[in-house]
Amino acid sequence: MSKTENAQKPHDRMAAYLESDMAAVSTLIRERMASKHAPRIPEVTAHLVEAGGKRLRPMLTLAAAHLCGYDGPFHINLAATVEFIHTATLLHDDVVDESGQRRGRPTANLLWDNKSSVLVGDYLFSRSFQLMVETGSLRVLDILANASATIAEGEVLQLTASQNLATTEEVYLQVVRGKTAALFSAATEVGGVIAGAPDDHVAALFEYGDALGIAFQIVDDLLDFQGDAGAIGKNIGDDFRERKLTMPLIKAVAKADAEERAFWVRTIEKGKQEEGDLQHAIALLHKHAALTDTSVVARTQAARAKAALAPLPAHPVKDMLVDLADYVVERIN
C-alpha cells in the first residue's frame, strides 16, 4: 500500500500528495526565518514552526494551486507566506491571551518573554510581505495584506466582545472571520490567483476557505468544552477561564433565566470564578442544548465549503478538500 493510500485522514492524504511541495515550503521557511544579527528570531520561530502542526493553511494554498493547474514556482512562496502570517499571529495571540501552552508545549512567551514573542511575530510579518512581493502579483499582495489587516481587526474586536454578555452570534462570527477564516480564505484564494484561474474558480476557492475556516473555529470552540485535552493540545475549559464568549456560551446566555444570567455575569463579565464553575457552565450548556445547536452551525458551514467546490474541475485534490470539510466537523462526534 502506498503512503497516500495508507494515510487515512484527509490532511494526511493531502500532505502525502503534496509531499515534495511541502518539503520545498519547509526549506524556504527555514531559510527565511534565519537572522544574521538576532539568533533569538530562529530560536523562537523554530519552537512554533517545528512543533508538529499540520500546516493546514499552507497546504490549502498548494492544493488550490494544483487544483487550478499551476505549474510555476510561486505557490511555494505563497504557502510559506501563509505559514509565516499564521505563526506571527500565534506568537501575538499567546501574549494577548497570556497562554502557557500551545499544541501541548510551553508557549514562546513562557519560554522566552512577551517582548521576544511580539518582536519575532513582527519580524515574521515582515518576512511574509517580502515573500509576497517576490511573486510579482499585486492582486496576491492585495489579498494577503487585506487578510493580515482583517486578522488584526478580528483580534481587537474580540478584546471588546469576548467578555460582554451583549455580544451576539453575528459579532462572534465577525470575530471568527477575522481571527481564523480570513487566513483560510486568503490561503485558498491566492492559490487560484497565482494559477491564473478564472474569476468564478477564484471566488469558489475563497468561499471554500471562508466556510472551512468558520467551521474549523466553531469546532475548536466546541472542543474547548467537550474535547480531550491531550488531543486538542490545551486544557478543557480554557476559553471559559479566559472569559471568551464563544458560540456555545452565547447560545446558553441567550436562553438563561435570571439566576443563570447572574452566574454568567459573575464568571464572564466580572471574572470572579470559583471552584466548580466550569462544571456548572458545562451543565448549563447541556441544559440549553447549546453544544448541539453550535455543532449544527459548524456542520452547515462544512456543507457550504463542500458546495463551494462545485464549479472547480475534477481533481484528486478536490476530493481531498471535500473530505477535509467533512473531517473538520467529524471531530465533534
Automatic annotation (TrEMBL):
Record keywords, A-Z: Magnesium, Metal-binding, Transferase
Q: What enzyme category does the UniProt record give?
A: transferase
Q: Which GO terms describe its biological process?
A: isoprenoid biosynthetic process
Query: At the top level of its lineage, which domain of life is listed?
Result: Bacteria
User: EC annotation?
Assistant: 2.5.1.90
Cytoplasm among keywords:
no
Q: Which reaction does it catalyse?
A: 5 isopentenyl diphosphate + (2E,6E)-farnesyl diphosphate = all-trans-octaprenyl diphosphate + 5 diphosphate
According to its UniProt record, which cofactors does this protein need? Mg(2+)
Alphabetized SUPFAM superfamilies for the sequence: Terpenoid synthases
InterPro entries assigned to the protein according to its UniProt record, in alphabetical order:
Isoprenoid_synthase_dom_sf (IPR008949), Polyprenyl_synt (IPR000092), Polyprenyl_synt_CS (IPR033749)
Q: Which GO terms describe its molecular function?
A: all-trans-octaprenyl-diphosphate synthase activity; metal ion binding
PROSITE patterns, alphabetized: POLYPRENYL_SYNTHASE_1, POLYPRENYL_SYNTHASE_2
Family, as annotated: Belongs to the FPP/GGPP synthase family.
Q: Which PANTHER family match?
A: ALL TRANS-POLYPRENYL-DIPHOSPHATE SYNTHASE PDSS1, GERANYLGERANYL PYROPHOSPHATE SYNTHASE
Q: What does the function comment of this entry state?
A: Supplies octaprenyl diphosphate, the precursor for the side chain of the isoprenoid quinones ubiquinone and menaquinone.
Q: What is this protein called?
A: Octaprenyl diphosphate synthase
What is the scientific name of the source organism?
Roseobacter denitrificans (strain ATCC 33942 / OCh 114)
Q: What is the lineage of its organism?
A: Bacteria, Pseudomonadati, Pseudomonadota, Alphaproteobacteria, Rhodobacterales
Name the encoding gene, please: ispB
